Amino acid sequence: MRTFLVLGLIGVGGCQMETTASCSAVPPIVGRWSYTATESSPVHANLSGTLSITSASCDGIVGSMDVLESDAAGGQQRLAGPITGQVVDGKSFQFSAFIDATPRQHLASVTGDSVSGSWVEAAGSASASGTFGGRKE
Q: Residue 100 and residue 13: Cα distance in Å, rounded?
């Protein structure tokens, strides 16, 4: 019974944190973006492709990502999948790209027709991270 009560309180607290009451402006992010990223840890890799945001509101962000990842050894792999996220404020947003076994979480800042930020993919004791940028097409 005690476990149920604690989990219930955690669930309620989580719901309160996800409200959009603090969202006062949505940055102009809907559309197709060129996307480039660098993985700096644990190994070096470059990614390039497209980030497509089909809708963005204070209630959430929806879209997709399609990129080609090139590693230092010359290997390449295509990574593609949906994205979901939230508006942080009128100049920034966060989203998770479901392009690998573990979602890559991005924190983005918008300036004009450019976007930049950092990303992390945390999978247990293994994690990857890097930076990204893009320009609206």
A: 29
**Token pair belonging to 126:** 């293994």
What distances in angstroms separate CA 28 from CA 32, 90, 112, 113, 137, one per listed residue? 11, 8, 9, 9, 13
Q: What is the mean pLDDT of residues 89-95?
A: 94
Q: Give the pair of three-digit tokens for residue 96.
A: 């998770």
Query: Who has greater pLDDT, 20 or 120?
Result: 120
Q: What angle do CA 19, 21, 26 make, to 5 degrees?
A: 100
Residues 7, 73: Cα–Cα separation, whole Å? 46
3-state secondary structure of 94: strand
**DSSP string across 11-68:** HHHHHHHT--TT-----S--EEEEEEEEEEESS-EEEEEEEEEEEEETTEEEEEEEEE
Tell me the three state secondary structure of residue 4.
helix
48-69 confidence digits (pLDDT tens): 999 999 999 988 999 999 999 9
Q: What confidence score (pLDDT) does residue 126 get?
A: 75
Q: What is the pLDDT of residue 22?
A: 66
